[in-house]
Amino acid sequence: MHNIKELKILDKATTLAIDIYRLTAQFPDNEKFGLVSQIRRCAVSVPSNIAEGAGRNTNGEFVNFLGIANGSLYELQIQITIAHQLKFIVDEDCEQVLNRIDELQKMNYRLQESIKNKHK
Fold first, then answer.
1. pLDDT tens digits, residue range 14-55?
2. What is the number of H-type helices and E-type strands within the chain?
3. Residue 46 burial (CB < 10 Å; 0-12/13-18/19+)?
4. What is the Cα–Cα distance from 86 to 102, expressed in whole angstroms?
5. Which of 119, 76, 79 is nearest to 100 (CA)?
6. What pLDDT does residue 7 have?
7. What is the residue extent of each domain of the chain?
8. What is the value of pTM for the model shown?
9. Which residues contact 66 (CB under 8 A, 6 or more apart)?
10. Of 33, 42, 66, 108, whose CA is between 20 and 30 Å from 117?
11. Cβ–Cβ under 8 Å, residues 89 and 23
């Protein structure tokens, strides 16, 4: 098991999820059960899977959950892009969120590689 209080990626993923909630609160009301719901589920899935994986018994399980979190990041990336193209998100906010997603994807990859390399 890993100490989730020491995982910088978890802090960043949690902050992103909170910021996504704030950002999507500005979307049109008719998107409440559509894109808003989907984007929020993806955003919450990222820190949730990192935390769940950290609490698992083996590093292999942790890497698996990091992979699931990474999939959610890619899903979130395309949903933010769609929301931007629909003009629900302004250029500046879109760019900022996409940059943060990219940073988390890179952190996730490095963490997975670090875990894998420790146990070769």
1. 999 999 999 999 999 999 889 999 999 999 999 999 999 999
2. 4, 0
3. buried
4. 21
5. 76
6. 87
7. 4-118
8. 0.92
9. 49, 50, 53, 108, 111, 112, 115
10. 42
11. yes
Per-residue pLDDT tens over the stretch 71-108? 999 999 999 999 999 999 999 999 999 999 999 999 99
User: Which tokens sit at 64?
Assistant: 């698996």
Q: Is 36 helix (H, G, I), strand (E, B) or coil?
A: helix
One-letter amino acid of 119: H
Q: Which two tokens stand for residue 26?
A: 């500005």
Give the homologous superfamily in CATH for domain 4-118. 23S rRNA-intervening sequence (1.20.1440.60)
On average, the pLDDT of the chain sits at: 93
Cα–Cα dist 7/92, whole Å: 28
